[in-house]
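Our example copied in:
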Amino acid sequence: MTTWFKSPDSPSSADARGALVRVLSTDRGRTAGAGVYLAGRRLLTCAHVINAALGLRSLSPHHPGKVTLDVSFPVLSASDLHPARLVAWVPPRSPQYGAVPDGSLEWDGDLAVLELNEEPPPPVSPVRWLEMERGQQVRAWYGGGQPFSYADARVGAYDGRICYLDGQLSGAAVDEGYSGGPLWSVTDQAAVGLVMGRITAPEGALSAQHTVRRSWGLGWQSVLRELARVGAAPEGHMNGSRERSVDTLAEAESVRDMMVGPLHGLLGDPRARADHATVLAAQLGLRAPADGSAPTVEELAHLLSGAERALPTLAESLAPKVTDDARGRAELDRLLALGRLTEAARLLSVAEHRALVGKLEHLTEHDPGLLCRAATAALPYVDLPRSLQAARLMPSAVPAVVRELESWYGDGSPVPDETPRLPALLRVVEYVAAETSGELARQALREWSSRVATRLGIHSSALQERRGDADRWSRRTAPPGVRVLVELDRYSKDPLDHYRCSVWRLRPDGTPARAATDSERPRTGREIARLIREVAGGAEGAGGGVALVAVSVPPDNLELALDEWDGAGTDEYIPAPLGEDFHLVLRCPKIRRRSRTGHTDLERRWNSRHQSDILLADHRIGGRAGLIGLLKTTHRDTARVLVQGSTEHRGELLPVCLVMGVPVVLWDRAAPGPDDGALLDALAPRGPVDELPERVRHFRVHAYANRAVSARPALVWEDIGLPLPDELQLADPSEGTERTG
């Protein structure tokens, strides 16, 4: 164990109060609850603490929007307030993924991540996290952090979901204001979970049969799973392991012993070792002696093999000293190679990591698809993290993605003179830089990449070659995929079940190309389906995915069975309903344009679709007036509405959704009454929103093949990035001025 490197003089060296956060109400008049400092600028608390701070219903699942709250750190001055904005939301939910009724004793989810404008000053510091186990003695504090407010309890039960905590009949008990704070294992000197609530005895006289001083919380395993679901899992150094096998410990000791040799070669001079060790301690938030002494080489090796990012941080200060020293460079390369055998070293130094995460979070906020596109292109043969397989990425997910990419050291391409291979992360950064539109942002990323490559001893030609690959990729002209826009209309004299049809195909640059010129002839559904197949099929070279077909319909045709129109030719063996082969979605701009603010509402809601929760519009919503009230107030940014009920009920609510700019509306057009809504549960309406069209397509394929499935989902999908068909029309019809709808 090292003795030269000391933990900071703060309460956090003895307990978790150095990481304790106080969350204040919006009027700053009371403590809404507690939280815990994770790392960097991130704080963790409960969603119901955020609701309490805002004066909302405690267990409301609705995302409160882009709110900012004041927080303080009890280890600092109580009057020193810091604004923290909400960046990740895991709503309280029942085990069946529904709303949590008032008075419930337990629930799932209920987490929130806040982000500060800047990192808090010492002595605020992260805690170590370990997995929760039954029998642990834990301690919690009131959000204000007063030393006397500690409440001790024992983990009586933990089923991998929630834990029950039993306190003794002495001292303080978990009460209001404790929620969101860390559960500190005194024995392990680590946090093992989060306080969620208390289980109170019923009103009336207390009896020996009542539950007394029982509270509950989430174990660290549960917290991590919930945060991972929304892409907000924190840096992996907070994932501690309770036990390490004898073989693992022996291997770690061997690596540490092997580090002593290159460290003697690089820092044999005690004065140089003291200088570099002092800088290293400051970067890691540790305390170094002020007497000019130096740690032993063994102490330094112990720190490098066990402290997060210690080795690359030391290498960052050593690299300039060995630029012209071949022997020193060889010793540093040897030291870095040994670091790859440890879990703690990581690829980036503390400063490198902080700079990169900050840059990527900023870029991701403005272009959520940038990092995903760049990683897919830069690493075509790598099994990317799940978060990078989606089309969009939340800024809160960037730290976890960077950490994952750090674990891949070589990109597989040849390098000169047996120099180190370019790490996969640096290759991704080069592709991000090439795709970045701002010149200053691109230059900053490339300068960062060059500094890291130099520190790692990577040959400049290897970096330049990958940079050239990225530049060529950024100049690509490959389109995003097939997108077909269709407009249906009817005139009063047209035959029943016949429609006028205009079709456009979007070019790779997003401009429309008219694909059907004979739009004045009424067509049957089968004819229109064949036309759409021809247009989409003629553009198959534009992408390998499923084509998107967006159909604008008249207001009275929202429940038209477009997805069942079969476009198969007479000589084809397999039926080809449009809903099976395409992402067939509906639009109805004529309804939305009945509102002066329709376009603004649509844009705001569409941009909030990943943060807002789904709204269930069933017979309990209060009809048309009730839905209007919700969409104007608590659901002002809601982007998804699930409409359930009879045909008459849907006919009343669907126009409200569209005229108020809700971009994603889902319903079962075959549902005869309010009790048939559960048939769409297989679509996971509350799942990832951008994957909903594909889930609907899968559902339709199975439903058409299984007569026992009666549901027929209909989906309105108003992507603001797609032009509307009737806005593209260049000329009015030459005949028939009376249209239906």
